[in-house]
Amino acid sequence: MAKQINVALIGNPNTGKTSVFNRLTGMNQKVGNYPGITVEKKEGTCKFGRNCKVHILDLPGTYSLNASSLDENVVIELLLNKNDKDFPDVAVVVADVENLKRNLLLFTQIKDLGIPTILAINMSDRMNRKAITLDVPLLEKKLNTKIALISSRKNLGFDYLKELIENYNQLPTKPCLHASNIAPEYFDRLQKAFPNQDLYKLWLVITQDVNFGKLDRNELQGVASFKTESTSNLKRLQQKETIARYKFINETLKETLHIDTAKAKDLRSRLDRLLTHKVWGYVIFFGILLLIFQAIFDWSAYPMDFIDSSFASLSEWAKNTLPPGDFSSLIAEGVIPGLGGIVIFIPQIAFLFLFISILEETGYMSRVVFLMDKLMRRFGLSGKSVVPLVAGTACAIPAIMATRNIENWKERLITILVTPFTTCSARLPVYLIIISLVIPDTRVLGIFSLQGLTLMFMYILGFGAAIFSAYILDKILKVRSKSFFVVEMPNYKVPLAKNVIITVIEKTKAFVFGAGKIILAISIILWVLASYGPGDFNDAEEIVKSEYASQNLSDDDLEMHINSFKLEHSYIGHVGHFIEPAVRPLGYDWKIGIALVSSFAAREVFVGTLATIYSVGSDDEQTIKSRMAAEVNPVLGGPLFNFASGISLLLFYAFAMQCMSTLAIVKKETNSWKWPMWQLVVMTVIAYVVSLAAYQFLR
Amino acid sequence: MLTIASLKKGQRGIIKEFSVDVVPLKLLEMGCLPGNEVTLVQIAPFRDPLYLNINGSHLAIRLEMASKIEIELI
């Protein structure tokens, strides 16, 4: 029988752990979530020889076994629970040769748990250039382990690493240093109380605030009594433990590791000086932002247009090929456009994460955080909120996915909640058509187009609303988040194409299969509401035909009038009529009401819906525009789209959460319906109040 | 009292004792321990955060935390 070996990859962030994982597993990996939390679970398999299968779990990066975030809890919960199906037969601790000192802290802790452990020292190809020499045999002896010098960049040392993994049962399991030495008397008492338990495991159970549900409660009953030791005393012991470990590490490395420091830092410090410069730093950063903006806004337009037209023709094809009936119209008008509505986001998501993963791989992202932190902090955000907010001007969905690397939960939540205020590209068609209708085409000071200025004002308004609401949320949100700000400033590296590509694929998949399901479901619901109706809806054809019988309309025109009649009498049409009393004070009629409701699917649907209601055959902007300009307000007379109602609509779209995809992604990222619902209600109320005030004031 | 916050760019110091309750364990784990050497590498525009080299590892912390870690100049 083939044996399976469970391997856990553990290491500090920025050690290239994920590259090692990618090297070992190739594309044989899957990304999921740990049950109930939003922490990513990456696992993969590979085969060593014929009958040795290896299951590899890439654990979240952590600096130690003292957990302070959900990600880190995952690591310690797994390592403490021998019954977990993923419990490692062997742990591979990945370390960066240039940061060995800090990386070894985690290593000594894992050794203390008695798990067979291999030390994989990564980036060993840099040793020559950085004038680093390492006495591997001596270090192996001191640490009581086996060491593999590897380089995931140059693909070096992996054969030896695999060999070590395969023969894991020959690894020494004795710890290289005992935590118990820091307070012998306390640990003696602990061991006497639980003679059958691993001492360091007990110590972690006492000091860590993790989920013990998974651990065997019977075994550990009574451990809690040892918590009677005062918290500050426990903290002091933890501090002593860390100091003792560092002392051991410093002494060990003094004998085994030599770095010629003079040679080590030239390039790094020169780049740092430039990239965090008080002028050039910002100039470069805004240049990069502009490039990202250009990519998501402009370059992705080509594949998006292609996707759009492909799905349109697919839907047309389905309509013509399938036998007519409810089922085929569900496929052609509900499912296919719904799928199209998901796929259309892929280019933007892929572009954004292409840039983000390059920026992270190179180490530049930490410099951006460093540069922007103080500015953003005034609004309850973090230096890491900059990228999501900027990406939000293209689309809130990839932007919200990009908040993942904000460790502080409160800052991350605020970023997620305010990002939809930024002016995303779906608002643009709505803005453009309304601005061209209600803002006069004149110039200010002879040069600036008033319409252009209005559009710019809408962008500033969106960004301002995001920043302002962040400020308010920072004051009112009572979210427990104890983590504080410390950012590692990693060394600069050339990004590995493989890592970048895998990240892009992963993020895209996460969107398609996560938020995609919800988007598809809501599109189908909206389609049903628009395609079925009570009473008159079902006799639409006869009613319209008899109404226009005298006018001798062409088939196409008749068809348009039938569609328009159907929409008015469909369920969604009834919804439009039903909400009319609510939207009339904002200056809208029931037709705009329908457009508002259906554009909940996506904001740009507003224009298409109006086109259907006004029974203009095409989506052509000029035709819809002239038709909209001719629309008369049923109550007051005069044009329906005048300055007051136009501004009111602009403001409504600026503030309202008119995007189910965003709600779906917020649900996925916060792992609860509470925040998206909160967002939906609050943003809609703000939009309503502001539009109401604007209309009543301006009319 | 001299703290990391009072360092000038390029200056070095040795971290002195500090109270447990002030400095989070996370920072200790990053190498910010009594007896270790600290260099101020860069100051962000607006004087915050600070980019440090502590015991060979590079990290940035906010001014507020830096002003709680006592040092001795070298």
TrEMBL record, chain A:
Classification via NCBIfam families: feoB
Chain positions recorded as Mg(2+) 2 binding sites: 25-26
Compartments reported by the entry: Cell inner membrane; Cell membrane
Record field: transmembrane: 279-297, 335-359, 413-439, 445-473, 510-530, 643-666, 678-698
Example of a GO MF term: GTP binding
Record keywords, A-Z: Cell membrane, GTP-binding, Ion transport, Iron, Iron transport, Magnesium, Membrane, Metal-binding, Nucleotide-binding, Transmembrane, Transmembrane helix, Transport
Physiological role: Probable transporter of a GTP-driven Fe(2+) uptake system.
Membrane topology: Multi-pass membrane protein
Domain FeoB-type G: from-to ranges: 4-171
Stored Gene3D superfamilies: P-loop containing nucleotide triphosphate hydrolases
Cellular component GO terms held in the UniProt record: plasma membrane
List of residues binding GTP: 11-18, 36-40, 58-61, 122-125
Family per similarity comment: Belongs to the TRAFAC class TrmE-Era-EngA-EngB-Septin-like GTPase superfamily. FeoB GTPase (TC 9.A.8) family.
Protein name, entry field: Ferrous iron transport protein B
Keyword check for tRNA processing: no
From TrEMBL, chain B:
Domain Ferrous iron transporter FeoA-like: 2-73
MF terms (GO), sorted A to Z: transition metal ion binding
Keyword field: Iron
InterPro entries assigned to the protein according to its UniProt record, in alphabetical order: Fe-transptr_FeoA-like (IPR007167), FeoA (IPR052713), FeoA_core_dom (IPR038157), Transcriptional_repressor_C (IPR008988)
Name of this chain's protein: Ferrous iron transport protein A
The keyword tRNA processing appears for this protein: no
Organism: Aequorivita xiaoshiensis
Listed Pfam families: FeoA
Gene3D superfamilies: 2.30.30.90
